[in-house]
Amino acid sequence: MILTFVIKKVMNSNRVCAFRSSGPKGPQMTKITTKNLRWLAVAGLAAAAGCSDSKDGAAPGGEAGAMGSGDAGAGGESSADLSARSAVVKNYASNLAQGYADSVADEKAFKTVIDAFLAAPTEATLTAARDSWLESRAHYMLTEGARFYNGPIDDDPPNHEAVINSWPLDEAYIDYTTDAQGVVDETSGVVNNPDILKDITFKGLDDLNAQGGDENISSGYHAVEFLLWGQALKKVGPGERPATDYVIGGPRKNPDRRGTYLGVAVDGLISHLTAVRDAWTPKAKYRVDFEADTAAALTNMFTGLAKFSKGELGSERLAAAYKSKERHDQHDCFSSETLVDYERDARGIQDIYLGNYGDNDGPGMDELVHAADPALDTKLKAQIQTSIDAIVAIPKPFEDAIAGDDDSKGRVKIKAALDALTAQGDLFGKAAAALGLTIRVDDPPEE
Amino acid sequence: MTRCAVLAILLLAANGCSGGAATSDAAVAAPPDPKSGGAATVLDVTANSYSNSIAGLSDEQAGDFSFGHSIFSQNWVTAPATTSGTDGLGPLYNARACSTCHSQDGRSPPFSSSGGLLGLLFRLSIPGRADNGGPNPDPVYGDQLRQFAILKVPADGTPHVAYAETPGKYGDGTDFSLQTPTYNIDGWNYGKPSAGLMISPRTGPSVIGLGLLEAVPEEEILAHVHPPDADGVSGVPNHVWDAALQKTVLGRIGWKANQPTTLQQTAAAFVGDIGITGSLFPTGTCTSTMTACLHAASGGDPDFELTDDRWKAVGFYMKSLAVPGRRDIDDPRALQGEALFQRFGCTSCHLPTLHTGADAVADVLKNQTIHPYTDLLLHDMGPDLADGRPDFEATGSQWRTTPLWGIGLLQTVNHHAFLLHDGRARGVAEAILWHGGEAATARENFRLADASERSALLKFLESL
């Protein structure tokens, strides 16, 4: 009761606060003193302004900053609450650390398949390599709900994510291409131009890329995907790169350099994933700081889930394609396995919210939300399942589903999925507010 | 009717009728308006403060805003690509994405952390005028240096920037130092440029509030046009080519008010900076001697590289970015600074208040009282800032008054404080000290003021 009084007093002082998430240090408060903020009527920001002068209690315990102090009294939390929150944060960090560790292991296992393929490139070993590529992303996709709070995955610099999973990819920068008329240009790309880059190494690629601007367009999972599948030239279906692209004396030039590029791209993935994994190991500074500031950690955790649901998966990956109607406006455009990955992403969000990973069913964020607002937790869980079901219901492949009129089955299903993910993102914002945290669901990620 | 009489009718205030001593501090005694962009204002002091949408968008408009944002921040790639909606980069280019130079809808620093050019590019021209009245492009290099190109196509050349420190003193004896840039381009890959080549360095400005500036009626802008007054301040409009209307119209966007509309500016930047053609500018920028450039594949087949849908979405996105609200409206120091801003004569050009009309892309942009701190007119800024390159009716020493709304959040959004057209100023004080020409009197008023007044003025600007 006393704690409620404290919060009310704070609110009556007409302070309006906003903060930006700043990694492990958490929210930085900036106070504005102004008496009339009725014109603050933008959707999203309204939800974000948790420390507004609202008297309707829309944002209970709105002073997120006060909780950042870790002082039980200031934040309106009992020590039991704090202990529960801390357990959730620790379980999240532990699961995420395992997710990145598994991603590194996946990539190393994948490398052995790639080595086998490069040692004996046949259609059979190529198929094995493709299958292994898809498998190698299984754990990584489950971690994507932990982006967008400047954690180890996407803090910039070094922005590992941009090297690991950037899209779209510059195909002609890497290898030969085929135009719309079917004319092959075997002179394009680093693979076919030793004069541009004599030795294909990860540093060499990085330096060359920097000469054309700072953006990463030639490395990561999708570079590997392109090197295994090739361009998707048909309206529907994956690329059809033949294994002979890697056969010395085969029909395409520079099979050895292509093979080198493929190996280097996988090594680069291993290296960057390892750096992210290491930042989440139990004794690493990031992990220690993350677990030490429970309020900041929870703010980041909800921010990641909300932004990944709404801004990234819902908007960037589904709504943008829905608007453009471009068949290959999809992240796995070469393999045509986009919907597999989007489903994994959605299930990863569910796992993170529930505190699950693999066989571990630890204390989840859902338990905190349930304690604060059981109905909201029920609604959010149902919404997450709705999103998963909506993605599963999109008929494969994506490039077929996206085309046509808005009342075609595929587009109706895609629209349902993006709407579900949008609603889900907003619910994560409400869930955070129920815990007294302020998150900004609608801010675009920093570029 | 005199200029001030017109103004008095329009504004019902003495703001802008400079005349120095005639204006008293009382004119700003009323509580300041935190709504810098009227109803198109959002209170936000975070790194995201330039990236909010205006309120009141319909579902369809909100969808366009998101789509526009997606395109604004997306990298373009070499054609032909599987992602045919995003290919056609270059062949010559300055950046792969809009957001490369307009990071977080703000202004990227001139140089990246690794030292390469980031938010800075170089306009080129030779003496004379193009048929449309604009700058006369170099016959080989066109009107812009592209320091990057896709693989196997030579870039235009290599720009070099060097700075020399130029010391100065405030009136109270305090030292300051300005960095004076020199620009040099070498490594020309297509032969020497024409004799008399003129180079204009320009950084990408923030893109907030464009929908409001575009909605200010032409009559209101022209009402501030005037010959030099007692302080030597004048105000002249630029008249530029509207490629859609195929006629010369008032310019209002860009460092020299050299573009008429956000949509045209967007299309020009796509083709000039990224090498992406569209329906307004369907021709690429390779000239006749650039063999590899001419033979490179173009993207977007069978449509333009930038479809009209995407172009309009990006245009709508920028026009519906909200303006961050003013802070510290009851801070006495900021209020003192606001009064000084007027007394020093800054408001002669950095006009505090304009009004939008009924013609705009969204309701909250219409009929608003806004505080952009610009008159959207050209002013001679003196030889030190001159680029020596005319741009339509703008001379080589004229620049459009830069809007100041949001300037206090630049550090938060873009993590730097490089200001002016080429980013030479390291913070607001240096930017003021670079002012010359028509602004020399105002600059001297600032330079000769005591430290307390100078810091109050800066405090005011930080609140915008």
What's this entry about, in short?
The complex is a heterodimer of chains A (447) and B (464). By secondary structure, chain A is mainly alpha-helical.
Estimate nothing, just give the exact number of structural domains of chain A.
Answer: 2
Q: What's the shape of chain B?
A: globular
Helix/strand order of chain A? HEEHHHHHHHHEEHHHHHHEEHHHH
What's the story with the biggest beta sheet of chain B? 4 strands, antiparallel
Q: Indicate the low-confidence ranges of chain B by residue numbers.
A: 1-28
- The percentage helix of chain A is 55-70%
> What's the Cα radius of gyration of chain A?
24 Å
Number of domains of chain B: 1
Largest sheet of chain A: 2 strands, antiparallel
Description:
- The complex is a heterodimer of chains A (447) and B (464).
- Chain A contains 19 helices and six strands.
- Chain A is mainly alpha-helical and 447 residues long.
- Chain A folds into two domains: 2-82, no CATH class; 95-436, A middle domain of Talin 1, CATH 1.20.1420.20.
- The two termini of chain A are 44 Å apart.
- Residues 1-75 of chain A have low confidence and may be disordered.
- With 464 residues, chain B is an alpha+beta fold.
- Chain B has one domain (18-462).
- Chains A and B meet through strand 1, strand 2, helix 9, strand 3 and helix 14 of A and strand 1, helix 2, strand 6 and helix 8 of B.
